[in-house]
Amino acid sequence: MRRIVITGVITAIMASLALSGCSHADGSLQRGKASKELDKAMSEYYQVIADCSEEIHSIMVVQHGKVLAEKFFSPDTAHVLHSVSKTFTSTAVGFAISEGLLSLDDKIVDIFPESVPENPSENLKKVTIRNLLTMNSGHATDPTRSVSNGDGDWVKGFMEWPIEYEPGTCYCYNSLGTYVLSAAVQKVSGQKIVDYLDTRLWQPLGIEKPKWLESPAGINTGGWGLYLHTESLAKMGLCLLNGGKYKGKQVIPAKWVAEMSAKQVPCVPSGTNEVKMRENPQDPSTSDWLQGYGYQMWRCRHNAFRADGAYGQYIIVIPEKDAVVAVTAHVGDMQAEINHIWDSILPAL
């Protein structure tokens, strides 16, 4: 009887490891063997980017929870993520909402009364956390560069920028809005979001607490400035792919993952706004910037979604293939970069 009990325990443990086995004991993701088709596809991909002289720094392809292909063209150091940072800020907002610290309908003038300008406009009074998450604050242009070059109150600078449209009616990519989200989480939690995420995200995913740039006010920049390794990007992608679960544990609330990765609003590329794009429409069948926007995440073609950063930083989640592709780079044509993934790698998954 004793032998049977012990055997049963061992079997249960092995089964549990098999189910949760997306990482090794040291926290790294498990490696698997790529199919001949994927090996060939990756070789074709490497040749294409070489022919195009694209400066890809790293790529990692994960399918069914295992790394099947990876290549580093530069040293494997923590890479600046630019706007991929936004997805992690959105995750912090999701935790704060789940803990009752914030709500989607909270108005920023109520969260930051000290930063509200004199005689605030009616549009400013209406801006909510939801509007910031969906890039629908009502701004016609992105105030980030102008405001963040100063040493003053960036939240006040955001509020002082003219809000030409009613919040919720016009998409305009707005990195400073993401900074305001970071500031909101810090205000209600008492922690910078890089610290707030430590026990909630970094540790469960086996990621050492990373570097994240701050404003002069000591607030993580939110919309940019986070540094992570490629494998950490893949871990985040795997967690999102599995509805917020990692190693069998619910890390990010499933409801939040569903909302942040779904199409919440129509979207247009950064540098323009929805009203201007109506005058000069583009073809959604050829653009991954016209598929819809969630909470600080873009929808893609092929029913995928992604975290997206300037110069070609990606966490691409492809649910229909149970796959994640993480990329770091320094390229000028980000659509061409993602096209190479769709053309070369996707068919082999």
Q: What features would you highlight for this structure?
A:
349 residues; alpha+beta; Beta-lactamase; 6-stranded antiparallel beta sheet; 15 helices; 12% strand
Question: In words, what does this structure look like?
Answer:
The chain is α+β, with helices and mostly antiparallel strands and 349 residues long. It has a single domain (43-348), classed as DD-peptidase/beta-lactamase superfamily (Beta-lactamase), CATH 3.40.710.10. The chain has 15 helices and ten strands. The strands form three sheets. A six-stranded antiparallel β-sheet has the order 2-1-10-9-8-7, with helices on both faces. Helix 2 (36-51) runs antiparallel to helix 15 and helix 3 runs parallel beside helix 9 (175-189). It is globular. The N and C termini lie far apart (46 Å).
Strand order of the largest sheet: 2-1-10-9-8-7
Oligomer: single chain
CATH topology: Beta-lactamase
Number of strand elements: 10
**Low-confidence spans: pLDDT under 50, at least 5 residues?**
1-21
Tell me the helix content.
25-40%
Describe the main β-sheet briefly. 6 strands, antiparallel
Q: What is the number of domains? A: 1
**CATH architectural group:** 3-Layer(aba) Sandwich
Distance between the termini: 46 Å
CATH class category label = Alpha Beta
What order do the SSEs take from the amino end to the carboxyl end, as H and E?
Answer: HHEEEHHHHHHHHHEHEEHHEEEEH
CATH superfamily: DD-peptidase/beta-lactamase superfamily
